[in-house]
Design goal:
Pfam families: YceD (PF02620). It is a single chain. By secondary structure, the chain is of the alpha/beta class. The protein has one domain. The chain is 17% helix and 32% strand. It contains three helices and eight strands; from the N terminus they run E-E-E-H-E-E-E-E-E-H-H. Strands 1-3-4-5-6-7 form a six-stranded mixed beta sheet, covered by helices on one side. A two-stranded antiparallel sheet has the order 2-8. Strand 5 and strand 6 form a beta hairpin. It is elongated. The termini are far apart. The N terminus is likely disordered.
Length: 185
């Protein structure tokens, strides 16, 4: 990411004391963990490998004390297929947006209530740890059930010896009604 005087400053630390940052311009950053760090993260996240990992973006001042983080997460992860256990390689490229708000109000929502529309809002921390942002976004981006090409779940049945297996059609509440109506034709 080339820098011009209007682009702001390049962040050199992975932990930023927000109250000490210059609020007159954005602060660009780029995190590219080394091979040892990627291997440790792969182990922590139960990945077979973490081939590439990068978080690139900028921290923008907003208002009197708030900050907006805009970044892009790029990663190449290898996981075992959830069906065949063959290695599955997934490329992740996704935008990251967070807003750190001084006047953030944590709401205790009832279990039945919907989450607020803007899920990028977070309380303003004293220190922003960019490594933590990278790890959290990576963990949220990893496929929960990776599948190798052509891998499909087969039919699974568990019945006691001598019993007739239950079919999907048997569990549908109106299956008998449909069969009865067919007989009236």
């Amino acid at each position: 990411m080339p820098q011009t005087p209007h682009d702001g400053a390049k962040v050199t630390s992975r932990s930023l004391r927000l109250a000490r940052l210059d609020r007159t311009h954005p602060h660009a950053f780029e995190l590219v963990p080394d091979a040892d760090t990627r291997a440790a993260l792969a182990d922590e996240l139960d990945l077979s490998a973490l081939r590439k990992l990068r978080l690139t973006g900028a921290l923008h001042p907003e208002g009197r004390a708030d900050w907006r983080l805009e970044a892009t997460l790029g990663a190449t992860v290898v996981q075992p297929c959830g069906i065949t256990l063959e290695p599955v390689t997934t490329r992740i490229d996704r935008p990251v947006a967070r807003r750190y708000i001084e006047a953030f109000q944590q709401q205790d929502l009832p279990a039945e209530q919907e989450m607020p529309e803007d899920d990028s809002l977070e309380p303003l921390p004293d220190t922003l740890h960019l490594d933590s942002v990278l790890i959290e976004e990576l963990a949220l981006s990893i496929p929960a059930f990776p599948r190798a090409e052509g891998a499909e779940m087969g039919d699974v049945g568990a019945t006691p010896p001598g019993a007739e297996p239950i079919r999907d059609e048997d569990t549908k509440p109106f299956a008998g009604l449909r069969d009865a109506l067919k007989g009236d034709d």
